[in-house]
Design brief:
By secondary structure, the protein is an all-alpha fold. The chain contains 3 helices and no strands. The chain has one domain (about 5-95). The model is unreliable at about 105-110 (pLDDT under 50).
Length: about 110
């Protein structure tokens, strides 16, 4: 049986990917800007999450019976990366989708 946190974190990624593929259809994951922005967020996630979860002096303590027990780097549970991807991606998908008009254009005026 898959631990709860592991299952839910992977499920969150699958749900976001399916939501983009069959619902939002923004094309966000095909854009270089998304992946550059995600890499920047990931960099800071590693710094903060590494500090919060380091086993030598943790601020946040995980019970490994609920997750895979795999931690990389600096004792960060791998499930945190899945949830991080889901949260960042879903927020951006909603943001992009909310800026679209009914005709499919961005809805953003080119005039200042």
């Amino acid at each position: 049986m898959t631990p709860e946190y592991t299952f839910l974190s992977i499920a969150s990624v699958v749900i976001v990917l399916l939501a983009e593929r069959f619902g939002f259809r923004t094309g966000l994951f095909r854009q270089k800007a998304f992946w550059i922005g995600y890499a920047i967020c990931l960099f800071f996630q590693v710094l903060v999450d590494g500090w919060l979860t380091k086993l030598s002096d943790p601020v946040v303590i995980y019970d490994d019976k609920f997750n895979s027990g795999v931690r990389f780097p600096w004792d960060i549970p791998v499930e945190d990366y899945f949830f991080g991807f889901s949260l960042i991606s879903l927020a951006l998908l909603l943001w992009v989708k909310s800026g679209r008009s009914k005709d499919g254009s961005s809805g953003v005026s080119s005039q200042l």
